[in-house]
Amino acid sequence: MDNQLALRIKLFRETGQARPEVAAFVAAELEALGAEGLTVTEDTAGLLTSHLMAALTRLLNGESIETSPTDGQITAELTGHPEALARAHAVALRAEEALGAPLPGSEVNFLGLHLAVLARNSPAPHHVSERRSQS
Length: 135
Hints:
Blueprint: H1 3-14, H2 20-35, H3 42-60, H4 71-78, H5 82-99, H6 105-120, H7 128-134
Helix pairs in contact: 1-2, 1-3, 2-3, 2-5, 3-6, 4-6, 5-6
């Protein structure tokens, strides 16, 4: 994670836009994505970061998350990115376990779309498991 993205998380936390535990959770998730070989920078993951922190904070504050008229389009777009959707479901499961914040399906899909964009904006598709097998 680059310094600008870390600053985004810090500002969310310091201004009260994100709870400290949400900021820590999102930072850990971004570090894990970087460890998988994805390029996690302000440019590639800024929107993902803001969206996830805002959604998790709203859920923890007891606020509802509205469905969007574009949910159907997002679902259709994700059919070509099953790995991003699987990764989004895994993040959602960890968020529920760590924070008690179950992301609704529409949010999981939106997160999947962000993760698909992140994967597309990362260089060669080297994953941790592939690097381990080459060692």
